[in-house]
Structure formats: structure tokens, C-alpha cells
Amino acid sequence: MTTNPLPAALSVNARKTGAKKLEVSSAVLLAVLAVVAAALILVFMTIELRGNLGYILPRRAIKVGSMILVAYAVGMSTVLFQTVTANRILTPSIMGFDALYILLQTVLTFVLGGQVLLSMPTPLKFGMQVLLMVAFSLVLYRWLFLGNGKSLHLMLLVGIVFGTLFRGFSALLQRLMDPSEFLILQDLFFASFNQVDGTLLLVAIAAVGLVTVPAWRLRREYDVLALGRETSINLGVDHRKAVTKTLVICSVLVAVSTALVGPITFFGLLVASLAYQLVPKFKHATVLPVAVLLGIISLVGGQLVLERIFDFNSALSIVIEFIGGLVFIGLLLKGSLK
Amino acid sequence: MIEISGVSKSYGSQKVVDNVTATIPAGGITSIIGPNGAGKSTLLSMISRLLPMDAGGVAVGGLDVTSTPSRELSQTMAILRQENQLSVRLSVRDLVGFGRFPHNGGRATAADKIHIDQALDYLDLGPLADRFVDELSGGQRQRAFIAMVLAQDTKYLLLDEPLNNLDMKHSVHMMRTLRKMADELGKTIVLVIHDINFASCYSDNILAMKDGRLIAQGTPAELMHSSVLADVYDIDIRIEEIDGNRIGVYFA
Questions:
Q1: Do A338 and B85 touch (CB under 8 A)?
Q2: pLDDT by residue (tens digit) across A105-123?
Q3: Residue B149 to chain A, least CA–CA distance (Å)
Q4: Nearest to B49 by CA among B104, B4, B103
Q5: Short name of one Pfam family for this protein (chain A) (predicted)?
Q6: B106 and chain A: CB distance < 8 Å anywhere?
Q7: Going along B12-122, which residue ranges are E strands?
Q8: B1-76+155-252: CATH number
């Protein structure tokens, strides 16, 4: 065999520059996505701008603000959730988190009465719901995610059973409810981007900001947690504490997105899967913002296309759920459920 | 030195590990052998704080594993379990780089790079360093994970069935590498291992478990006797001395 040192040296060099290129492209990817997202937001705010600007602009700002916030909450909660459970298929919505939020809201309306809820100031009402959500999700889910070698199949099954149980119980209470109370409740659920209340948006921004701080500070631990429970304990990460913190963070984020637009099952899966495909090197410092930006692009862009080109108004969630559902089936078939 | 005192674990009414007390000396390779369900892996999990114990205590290099902060332990002891499924797509170099986390908290320094390169070289992973872990064969993947715990640069290394899924050639390579790590780098290595002959040829010390209890402990010369192994495995094992190693023959 003859040895030829030159190509070998070249290939080493090529590999080195290749690696460097990857490093750069994380930043480039973020920049490109940020520019696209900003451009879409700008177009959304200014397209066909006629008439009373003082009326139209704030309305559009609330709409675009709530879309950004939902993208942020869903993208972040999905990625963090998948990291601490070390899987790529389960998401908070698939595990029944938003069904739990709906159930809590139904129970509150049932116990306190719709009028009391309506007259309560938004921050108080939302704060109460978030606290309940955090408490219940800790009680219901913590054991599952702390467990020793709990299989993905078990978690998926528990998620489906919990989701069905919560939805069934909500439906039962809603049937027992006074019709006028039910109307109030329905108003809360079927909120869409077209009718978000400005105060709620501000409260939601505060809540999201509050949980972003601990999540961002844990970003390097999250890189380790994605390797699985045992490897992360070996590397000195406090798995119990991290899972508990992340459950709290995810509960708050799910509460925010569900309060703003109601339950959306597959959106998180869609943006998280895309983000994992796009980032060249798996680091939460990159994956989290990429997932959020992809969410903003698909929500604002999708809404823009549907409203302005197809003249539809509220079909965006259906389209997103459809595509997200396809991704879910694709992931299952690809055999990630090992 | 690893001191295990009165450690127990039960699942329901089933005692998986029953009041085990032992001392594993510092340096060299210690193998834990025994039939399926003897509690070997459970004991190793408790030593490495992956599993809380019901009773008793363990100290690794003087650190109590229940009360010492996890981060501090991770600089003294590394554990590798047998199934290592990754849900994340990582290159071999990045995986090995995670071994530095206990020391750098995720912020890589120049010193870390030296450790990573050394670990890669030690397990002959240089040419594979930029490949993705999920593209590797079982044996290569096993080596990548061993390189990760080697980069962790700990005095104590605990491995649960490191030969699992490896063919004869790779098993021998793995055991030679572990022997080298014990001799050259002065590591204390504890293995759970099924093949008594590998345990006999490569260990300094063997612990034999059965039904959750420790029933024998000693050097391979002391332990590799038909009478002892018959107690452990309930089968007749003839012992032959070949090239200075005591080999058990039990295939027929």
C-alpha cells in the first residue's frame, strides 16, 4: 500500500475549517431567523395600513405581541421539557399540560362562579391559575420524570391517560354548569389571536420574563441533562432539582400560551423538531432562541398569508396542527420511540 | 478506597441488596461477579448515587455519597451504565467534551481541550472524533462513552458491564485498555462483569454476590476455585491454570 500524506493533510484541514464553519453558522442561522422574524412582524404591522391608525396599530400590536409570546412560551417549554425527559417526541401538550390548565380553569369557574372570575382583576386571576397549575403539575408529573428508568412508552401512556381524564372531567363539569357561566368559560377558551386582552398580555409578558431568568441560567446544565438522567447525575448535575425547576418553568409557560390562545397540541413539536434539525451544534444557548424564532416566523408568517392572501381568519391553528401532526407521525415512524 | 457498610435495597418485599459490607481498595481493578439478579448492578448504582439506598452508607475516597454535593462527587468518581441511548445528535468530540463538565461547568478552556484529546487518543478515537455518535458501531460507541468518563479525570471509575454487546476482540481490547488505565493512570476501576474469566485475568480483586449478599471476596487466585464458584453460580466449574491465569471451564 502506498501512503499519500498530502490528501490526508488536506482532509484534516478541510475538517478543521468545516468545524469552524459550523461554529459560525450558529450565529448566522440566528441572525437570518431574527431578520426574517423582524421583517414579518414589520409587514404584519404595516400592511394595508389605512383609516384610524390610533385604533388599528394598537390592535395589531396586541395581536402580534400575543403571537410572539405564544411562540416564545411554546418553543421554550417544548425544548426544555424534551431535554429533561431526554426524548424528542413528548411535549407538554402531548402529556396533557394544557388539558390540565383548562380543567383548572373550569373547576375555578364552577366553584367560584363566572361572575366572580370576570370581576377579578386579570393579574390576580391569572396569578391564581398559574399557581394552581404549578402545584398540580408538580404533584401529578414530578414522580414520572424523576423516576429511575421510566420508559418513554410509559410516559406517553400516562400523558394520554391524563389528557383524556382532564378533558373528560372538564367536559363533565361544563355540562353541569349554568349555561351563562359556560358562555363565560367558552369565551376564555376560544380566545384566538384576534381577541387577546391587553392586560392579560402584559401579565403574561411578566410571567414569561420571570421564568426565562432561571431557564437561561441553567442553559449549560440543560446541555448535560439532554444526555439522560444517569449521565447527567454522573456529571454532577442535580437532576431532581433541575427537573423540578423545569416542571415549574414549563407549567408557567403552558399556562401563558393556553391562556392566550387555548390548547395547541402539535405546534411545540413542530418548532422544536425543526430547531433540532437546523442547529449545527446542539447547545441550548442556540436551540432555544432558534425554536422561538421559528415559532414567531410560522405564526406571524402563517397568519399573514392566511389573512391577506387566502382571506381566512381563524384557520391558522388548524393548519399548524395539521403540519405538526404529520411531523409527530413522521417522528414515530422514524423510530425515535425506541 | 471505597467503603461499603451495611448497604441494603428492596423493591417491595424483595431484597435486592441485603446488608452488603465491603472495602474496595484504592488502585487496580475490582470486579463484581455473580449470577443474574444477584444485585451487582444495583449495588454499583448505589455506590455511584444513581440509586438511593434504603439502609447503610458508602464512602468513595472519603466522600459520603449521600451527603456530598453531586458536583464534588463527579470530580472524584465517574459511573457508566450499560445502556447509553442518546436522544441528542452529538459528535464524538462533543460527547467526550461533556466529561469536562464537572470541572468547567460547560465553559470549555484550553486545558479541557488537552484532556479531551488525551482521552480520545487513549481509546483510539482520533480518526472518529468528528463522526456523530449515532453513526458508530456498538463497540465504537462504548469506547466513546468510556472516553467521556476518562476525560472526567476522576480517581474512581465505575463501569456496569462494559463488555456488554462487545465481540471477543473488542472485549479483549476494552479490558486491556482498562488495565492500562489502572496501571498507567492510577485509577481505581470497579466493574460489574459476567465473564468470570475476564474477571480472573484482569482484576486485582473480585467480589462475588448471590441473592443480594456478598458471599466471597479475594484475589483471583483466592476466588477462582471450583468450590467457591459452585456456591456462587450453582454449577460445576472446572478451574485450569493456563499461562498463569486461572480459567474456569463450564461450557459442557
A1: yes
A2: 899 888 888 788 778 888 8
A3: 9
A4: B4
A5: FecCD
A6: yes
A7: 14-24, 28-33, 55-60, 63-64, 77-80
A8: 3.40.50.300
